Amino acid sequence: MLSKIIFILASVATLVNSQFDPTSVPYATRESWCNSQTSACPLLCLQLPGASGTPTSNTCSADTLLYYCLCSNGATPNGTEYSQTIPYYTCTETNNQCVLKCNGDSTCQYNCRVDNPCGAQDPKRVNVTTTTTTTQSATATASKVSVNTLINGEPTGAAPHMASVDMNHVYGLCVLVGGFVAGFATLL
Question: What pTM value is reported for the model?
């Protein structure tokens, strides 16, 4: 009963703060958005300290786009910080509708998106470990190769003039070509 009361209060607060008209979007799309929202809720709860992946309440209405995600620790995740949530979808759709009203004016279209960014702008990293950071740093260091910069066809040889070349795209291309070769080899 308490979760229903909280849902109603959250719904009213969302209605008061929202300027988005749910009926401007086809019902099937709203159903899809609600499915994504309720699928995202358990994952969002896992991002909160002390919460499990089993929310206390996880509802969404395709008629009104009102949703409620209450985690096991009593907290509600801020849906505006994530994608695949109702706030993200309504924000994106608001931007799309704004762009349509611009009648091809590229400055107006640009401003529609820049003035109303959707999703996390500076997401909090709550589940990051030092192992991840160390691995990323080691990978970034290993994927760079130093080469001498040429001036008039001659290598400069001095360390401050050495350029760093990112080789990730080369490795990716090798993997892609290798995959094609292996695929064709199995066909023969």
Answer: 0.57
